[in-house]
Amino acid sequence: MAPTYQLFLLLLGLVGTQATFDHRMAAAMATGLCRTRPTDLVFIIDSSRSVRPSEFEQVKVFLAKVIEGLDVGPNSTRVGVVNYASRVKNEVSLKTHRTKAALVKAVTKIEPLSTGTMTGLAIQFALNVAFSEAEGARAKSPDISRVAIIVTDGRPQDNVKDVAQRARDAGIEIFAIGVGRVDMNTLKQMASESLDDHVDYVESYSVIEKLTKKFKEAFCVSDLCDTGDHDCEQVCTSTPGSYKCGCREGFTLMDDGRSCSAACSNAAIDVVFVIDGSKSIRPENFELVKKWINQIVDKMDVSESKTHVGLVQYSSLVKTEFPLGQHNNKKDLKDAVKKMDYMEKGTMTGHALSYMMETSFSLSQGARPGVQKIGIVFTDGRSQDYIMDAAKKAKEEGVKMYAVGVGSAVESELKAIASEPIAEHYFYTADFKTMNQISKKLQINVCEDPCECDSLVKFQKKVEAALQALNKKLESMSKRIALLEKKIV
């Protein structure tokens, strides 16, 4: 079977897997298979003057919908709500309401404070008061989670970094939700690690409800393998309140703990991301692009001897963010991606492709001789220069090219960049927020020569062992026949 055809089958399988996951998760939530881990949960909601009354109503609807998905009770999940602006008000204590109906009713009665934005003060209040045993919080225990969900739409008028660190050090897991013109750096200073899981952004309060599903799933524990609430690529084994991933025979579990690879004995590859940083993307979407890059990195076998990754950002100019081989472990590589600054100018994709070939894949920039070269090009719009010659040259020189487009990306340009067969190397989505679906589908096949795959080597060894055993049996039978012939004679 040709490697490209194997990749095609894998992509189809992943699409089906995601659909199955969504279906199973919805079914689990509906049938009650999903139960929430015992949690003390406090919402910290911004009601400063920048939040209009109609928008504050949408925040309350969001809170109510998250509460509806929880297993509320004195011995399961307790919920509190802290309302803040220039001052802080404890609207709902963890000890006050023990049923969903009572909680939702209390949430609907909350009124906005409509003054400044003292987010640091609100976090300090939650740490000192809302999460105190006097207000209904349970004694610290590894069996009980403490979680704060902060919703804000602006830049705080006080310091949040230090107080958020104190809250996290006290065992509070912080999720930060930003709306509209929020300061993204502030969200990152507040949120727990990993930031990919704990920082969310929405353009307006009108779409904040779409985060409901995320938080329902975040608090959901049970037999996670049965409910489908896992991200194991092949094998899922349930443990109490959690799960472990594994792989079928012939595959190995990768560093991310969930992906599987048919590891090749000579599977060294040089991968260069060519990322559009033009002004049409916007800063909040550029953060999503960085998350998307790191989702792909998670699936790679990054090391000194295996996969090397380089990153180029382009707009009107082209800039090497880091060359091939500079970061040879996933943590350093992902940290470098997160630190990338947004360029915010034009869209010179043709220039970027030429730069990739002439500079990024040069020996002086860390490219290794005789190693498969892979280019992953991301863009959200039409190129302002000619791309055909540069794209053709890259493919003619043996670079396997993947083209990924979002929003206003031009299909004909993406197909011109992508390697053959185009259907396996070209991806498009209309919305930045669904880019994670592409990261799940895009699987870089590094076993160019099937004879180098460890899975095939294992199979060959099994065949050889079976043949040796068969030869021994035949030799034994031959000896017996010879003895019988002597007796007959």
Automatic annotation (TrEMBL):
Q: Which InterPro entries match?
A: ECM_Assembly_Org, EGF, EGF-like_Ca-bd_dom, Matrilin_CC_sf, Matrilin_CC_trimer, VWF_A, vWFA_dom_sf
- One MF term in GO for this entry? calcium ion binding
Compartments, as annotated in UniProt: Secreted
Question: What stretch or stretches form a coiled coil here?
Answer: 460-487
Does Signal count among this protein's keywords? yes
Subcellular location, principal: secreted
One Pfam family of this chain: VWA
Q: Which N-terminal stretch is annotated as signal sequence?
A: 1-19
Q: Where is the VWFA domain?
A: 40-215, 270-442
Q: Name one GO cellular component term.
A: extracellular region
Q: Which UniProt keywords apply?
A: Coiled coil, Disulfide bond, EGF-like domain, Glycoprotein, Repeat, Secreted, Signal
Name the job this protein performs.
A major component of the extracellular matrix of non-articular cartilage. Binds to type 2 collagens and forms long concatenated protein networks as part of the extracellular matrix. Required for the network-like organization and bundling of collagen fibrils surrounding chondrocytes in the zones of maturation and hypertrophy. Required for mechanotransduction and adaption to mechanical loading in cartilage chondrocytes, resulting in an increase in expression of the extracellular matrix components ACAN and COL2A1. Acts as a moderator of angiogenesis in response to injury.
Q: What PANTHER family does the record point to? A: CARTILAGE MATRIX PROTEIN (PTHR24020:SF16), COLLAGEN ALPHA (PTHR24020)
Question: Would you tell me the protein name for this molecule?
Answer: Matrilin-1
Species of the source:
Austrofundulus limnaeus (Annual killifish)
Give the lineage: Eukaryota, Metazoa, Chordata, Craniata, Vertebrata
Q: Please state the gene responsible for encoding this protein.
A: matn1
